[in-house]
């Protein structure tokens, strides 16, 4: 008890059903003290009003609203990705149109001198293009290495063909130079196709 009156805790304990044996003295004070009875009544009324308030519970099934928000976010994400893909495709097309004039024209040579000249043009283009410093994927790198190996093989065959007599050498040289030009042309196409796909 606080002074002559009961504390809030004691009054709350008395409101519970089944008063413990040690509470008899507190119960006797409540029965004899008008101020404590008034406070106990106010406390009981407040408790009743609090119990009468509606309970705030989340709805049991909020999935409809969640699904709507998730679907809206997916649509926005899809539209953003579609816009980026469209921009990448436009950039790739622009790059392909811009780079194609830089690439040498397909060979139409009939002689060794023309094939050798075309081969030199393609070599110069590949050196200027500097494919080694560009980003590439594994498939493109594999194709490029394969073509470079085949070009090296043709180079060895050209060296061997130069040792032949003139009447045997000219047809073999022409065929080898044409083969070398075709391989270089394929190598240029591999690098340009990769550059277009990446969007450089």
Description:
This protein is mainly alpha-helical and 200 residues long. The chain folds into 2 domains: 8-52, no CATH class; 103-198. The chain has helices at 8-15, 24-32, 34-52, 63-99, 112-129, 138-161, 166-198. Helix 2 (24-32) packs across helix 3 (34-52), helix 5 (112-129) runs parallel beside helix 7 and helix 6 runs antiparallel to helix 7 (166-198). The longest helix has 37 residues, at 63-99. The radius of gyration is 46 Å and the shape is rod-shaped. The relative contact order is 0.09. Residues 105-109 have low confidence and may be disordered.
List keywords for this structure.
single chain; 200 residues; mainly alpha; 2 domains
Give a nutshell description of this structure:
74% of the residues lie in helices and 0% in strands. It is mainly α and 200 residues long. Helix 1 packs across helix 3, helix 2 (24-32) packs across helix 3 and helix 5 runs parallel beside helix 7.
Describe the secondary structure blueprint for this structure.
Elements: H1 8-15, H2 24-32, H3 34-52, H4 63-99, H5 112-129, H6 138-161, H7 166-198
Helix pairs in contact: 1-3, 2-3, 4-7, 5-7, 6-7
Largest sheet: none
Structural class: mainly alpha
Number-wise, the strands total: 0
The residue-averaged pLDDT reads 75
The amount of helix comes to over 70%
Taken from the alpha-carbon principal axes, the silhouette is: rod-shaped
SSE series: HHHHHHH
Intertermini distance: 86 Å
Estimate nothing, just give the exact number of structural domains: 2
Q: List unreliable stretches of 5+ residues.
A: 105-109
- Strand residue percentage: under 5%
Radius of gyration based on Cα positions: 46 Å
* Annotation field: number of helices: 7
């Amino acid at each position: 008890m606080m002074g002559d009156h009961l504390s809030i805790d004691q009054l709350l304990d008395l409101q519970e059903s089944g008063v413990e044996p040690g509470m008899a003295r507190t119960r006797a004070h409540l029965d004899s003290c008008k101020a404590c009875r008034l406070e106990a009544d106010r406390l009981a009324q407040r408790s009743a009003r609090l119990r009468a308030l509606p309970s705030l519970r989340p709805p049991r099934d909020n999935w409809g609203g969640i699904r709507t928000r998730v679907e809206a976010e997916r649509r926005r994400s899809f539209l953003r990705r579609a816009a980026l893909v469209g921009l990448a495709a436009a950039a790739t097309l622009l790059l392909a149109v811009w780079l194609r004039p830089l690439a040498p024209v397909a060979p139409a040579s009939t002689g060794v001198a023309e094939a050798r000249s075309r081969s030199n043009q393609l070599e110069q283009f590949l050196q200027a293009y500097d494919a080694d410093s560009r980003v590439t994927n594994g498939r493109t790198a594999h194709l490029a290495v394969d073509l470079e190996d085949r070009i090296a093989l043709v180079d060895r065959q050209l060296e061997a063909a130069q040792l032949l007599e003139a009447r045997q050498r000219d047809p073999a040289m022409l065929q080898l130079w044409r083969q070398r030009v075709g391989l270089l042309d394929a190598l240029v196409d591999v690098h340009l196709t990769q550059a277009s796909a990446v969007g450089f």
